[in-house]
Design goal:
By secondary structure, this protein is an alpha/beta fold. It has a single domain, classed as Peptidyl-tRNA hydrolase (Rossmann fold, 3-Layer(aba) Sandwich). 40% of the residues lie in helices and 21% in strands. Strands 2-3-4-1-5-7-6 form a 7-stranded mixed β-sheet. α1 packs across α5. It is globular and about 50 Å long. The protein starts with a strand and ends with a helix.
Length: 196
């Protein structure tokens, strides 16, 4: 059976709930809820499993804290013997407006510490879904911004993108990265504005 590892990046602990840096966790929580599965506390992270049309999907929310996310990713890839081509990592991104997103098959970490640590341990060759959190902060305010909680309005604005991200995960598993990128990247906010 083909196996897929879907990783949402974030920090564990109530104080980080609904913070911008935990957008990856929020996507996985939405996917788990839609699939009616629960996370269990396991080595290096909270793990939930489901199947999609005969393919095993393992969801991972690393419990290593953001800057050591690579430890969890490498451990679960190895433990489950999953090909890196079947890894998708979901992270927040200050370079994209709130609610925008970009799916890529590989690339740099864009200054994101979680992606940076994963890259150190397994290289750049894995798919990632970057969820825009905006960057309305003053100079030097990035840490407070990413660790700040979403307002109710922001959560409402983000929700459609979280729902889309759930669909993107399913498409990644069932159709692969190229088809999924072609289908979904044009749904990002900027693409919409250009075509209007």
């Amino acid at each position: 059976m083909d196996k897929y590892l879907i990783v949402g990046l974030g920090n564990v602990g109530d104080e980080y709930d609904l913070t911008r840096h935990n957008t990856g966790f929020m996507v996985l929580d939405a996917f788990a809820k839609a699939s009616n599965i629960c996370f269990e506390d396991k080595r290096y992270g909270f793990v939930a499993e489901t199947t999609l049309k005969g393919r095993k999907v393992i969801l991972l929310k690393p419990s290593t804290y953001m800057n050591l996310s690579g430890n969890a990713v490498r451990y679960w890839l190895t433990k489950e013997n999953i090909d890196q081509k079947r890894l998708l990592v979901i992270s927040d991104d200050v370079a994209l407006p709130l609610g925008d997103f970009r799916l890529k098959g590989n690339g740099s970490n864009g200054g994101h510490n979680g992606l940076g640590h994963i890259q150190q341990l397994i290289g750049q060759n894995y798919a990632r879904l970057r969820m825009g959190i905006g960057n309305e902060y003053a100079r030097g305010g990035q840490i407070d911004w990413v660790l700040g909680r979403y307002s109710e309005e922001e959560q409402k604005e983000l929700q459609p993108s979280i729902d889309l991200a759930v669909d993107i995960i399913k498409s990644f598993v069932l159709a692969g990265i190229d088809i999924t990128m072609n289908q979904y990247n044009k749904l990002g906010k900027r693409a919409k504005t250009k075509s209007e």
